[in-house]
Write a structure and sequence with these properties.
Oligomer: single chain
CATH class of the largest domain: Alpha Beta
Low-confidence stretches: 1-22
Helix content: 40-55%
Strand order of the largest sheet: 3-4-7
Number of helices: 20
Number of domains: 4
Strand content: 5-15%
Radius of gyration: 32 Å
Distance between the termini: 89 Å
Structural class: mainly alpha
Number of strands: 13
Shape: elongated
CATH architecture of the largest domain: 3-Layer(aba) Sandwich
CATH superfamily of the largest domain: HUPs
CATH topology of the largest domain: Rossmann fold
Bound molecules: glutamic acid
Length: 526
């Protein structure tokens, strides 16, 4: 059994109790700016946010940027903009600051340096001088069959470190400036047990853990060290994060123990993965392109390849719909309710209703949510989306007319760009006519009777749906043709295809003059 000493006094002091915030729920979202935020990351942020709001706690953003090799320009900004679009507001972050600023780890390196020193002094960590070539060599020499080389209990004494080298050699190497990293000394033959709020009891034997690097030769900590120190200093009460971090949790727990912080250790909740739509493996950033749906909240242009990845925002999803969809991807309210406002999510949310198994991503369901949310918006609000799109297409229409068009087409709008797609026909006569449709519906005498019908329409008063209906009935009855034989050609002439809302609705919306103009123009062009 490892004997732990109380080392808290030797550590940089925490704030005295009197100026500490009241103890309570404090959660953090801690992304690394190594690329755009995947929807799984947004879901992690969302669950943290809901948990914080539900318990009147604090929601903190911490940027974990200590891995300089994986730094991607623009990623931090992207993460912040994405969460803002989603409506997830932080109480403490790199812009607002807060009682534990700075919130960007690269600005906290002196803190980590002090703490890693404590681990060295207490013998819970050691210096390792192995070069990349030596590590590679050890990997080749010491891997056995399926058993990969692990820098740890079985191998550490065969490597070049302050455990295997003499004290003199270690000081010589340190003094002459040899590069070294600091590794955690995983204790032998112990069992680490902790309770995960989602997975229940997690039990790991320390001999399966490796002596992970805590501090790199570039003077910056690794994720593990910085993450634990900051969670402690920032008084994080619950660590809610992706399942991919579950294997690291036992090592984090050991760090809390080594520092003497076990009694104020946060509780852990590791979230299930988001899976590909077919359930076969983790949803990856390439799946979106392959299967035709966005994986990122906002569009992302990869700075290396210039590849553009779709974003929910640009593809025309409403942030409320995106959030609602994500909330139910791995959490269930225990009722049939599917549509939740953010406030409703806050009051319904609880960690114990998070599923243990992975959640299959369902693209049609994402569109379904968006459709539902669009249907809840008043016409005037949809106008604010449509108007700029019309203007960008050189269309400057009377707002009242635009709103009437919206009322007619809105039911079929799933994504915001459908507003423009479905309404263009009300602002512009077709320039082309679908040839396949034409082949199917256009016959010898069609032009003739359509012209006759147009002549009758020109005399029709009033020009409304009812009288149009009556006219169509009389006309098709007397000519002994089916309704479709008239309506389909009318639609082709007026719309250019077989798409769109009811033909009478279109005719009335366009007005008699425009309707007739399109019929004559179409007959000529066709
Ligand atoms: N920086 C880690 C990440 O990018 C955070 C993991 C954690 O929340 O502990 O996912």
């Amino acid at each position: 059994m490892l004997i732990l000493q109380d080392i808290t006094l030797t550590l940089p002091a925490r704030k005295p109790a009197s100026i500490m915030e009241p103890a309570g729920i404090r959660v953090r979202f801690a992304p690394s700016p190594t690329g755009p935020l995947h929807l799984g990351g947004v879901r992690t942020a969302l669950y943290n946010y809901l948990f914080a709001r539900k318990h009147n706690g604090a929601f903190i953003l911490r940027i974990e940027d200590t891995d300089q090799n994986r730094f991607v320009p623009g990623a931090e900004d992207y993460i912040i903009k994405s969460l803002k679009w989603c409506g997830l507001e932080f109480d403490e972050d790199i812009i607002k600051g807060g009682p534990h600023a700075p919130y960007r780890q690269s600005e906290r390196s002196s803190i980590y340096r002090e703490y890693v020193q404590v681990l060295l002094e207490k013998g819970h960590a050691y210096k390792a001088f192995d070069t990349a070539a030596e590590l590679e060599d050890a990997r080749n020499r010491l891997s056995r069959g399926h058993e990969q080389f692990q820098y740890g209990v079985k191998t550490r004494l065969q490597m070049k470190n302050s455990l295997s080298l003499s004290a003199d050699e270690v000081s010589t190497r340190t003094e002459r400036g040899d590069r070294y990293v600091i590794r955690i000394l995983i204790p032998e033959n112990q069992t680490v047990i902790f309770h995960d709020l989602i997975r229940g009891e997690v039990k790991v034997h320390t001999d399966t853990l490796d002596d992970k690097v805590l501090f790199k030769s570039d003077g910056l900590p690794t994720y593990h060290l910085a993450n634990v120190i900051d969670d402690y200093l920032m008084k994080i009460s619950h660590v809610i994060r992706g399942e991919e971090w579950l294997p690291s949790a036992p090592m984090h727990l050991l760090l809390y123990r080594f520092f003497g912080w076990e009694s104020s250790m946060p509780q852990f909740a590791h979230l299930p993965l988001i899976l590909k739509p077919d359930g076969n493996g983790k949803l990856s950033k390439r799946d979106g392109d392959r299967l035709g749906f966005p994986v990122f909240p906002l569009e992302w242009k990869d700075p290396d390849s210039d590849d553009i990845f779709h974003g929910y925002k640009e593809d025309g999803y409403l942030p409320e719909a995106f959030i609602n969809m994500l909330a139910l991807l791995g959490w269930n309210p225990g009722t049939e309710q599917e549509i939740f406002s953010m406030n409703e999510l806050v009051s319904a949310f609880s960690l114990d209703r998070i599923n243990k198994s992975g959640a299959k991503f369902d693209p049609p369901k994402a569109r379904w949510f968006n459709h539902k949310y669009i249907q809840q918006k008043p016409d005037a609000e949809l106008y604010n989306y449509l108007q700029p799109a019309l203007a960008a297409n050189g269309i400057n229409a009377d707002p009242e007319y635009v709103i009437r068009v919206i009322a007619l087409i809105r039911e079929r709008v799933e994504l915001l760009p459908d507003l423009l797609k479905n309404s263009l026909l009300f602002f512009r006569a077709p320039e082309t006519y679908d040839q396949q449709v034409k082949q199917k519906i256009w016959q010898e005498g069609t032009a003739l009777y359509v012209e006759e019908f147009a002549t009758m329409v020109s005399r029709l008063e009033p020009f409304d749906k009812e009288s149009l209906h009556r006219l169509v009935e009389e006309f098709t009855g007397s000519r002994k043709i089916k309704t479709g034989q008239l309506m389909n050609p009318l639609r082709l002439l007026v719309v250019g295809s077989n798409q769109g809302p009811g033909m009478m609705d279109i005719a009335v919306m366009l007005g008699k003059e425009e309707f007739l103009r399109r019929l004559y123009l179409g007959i000529k062009k066709i």
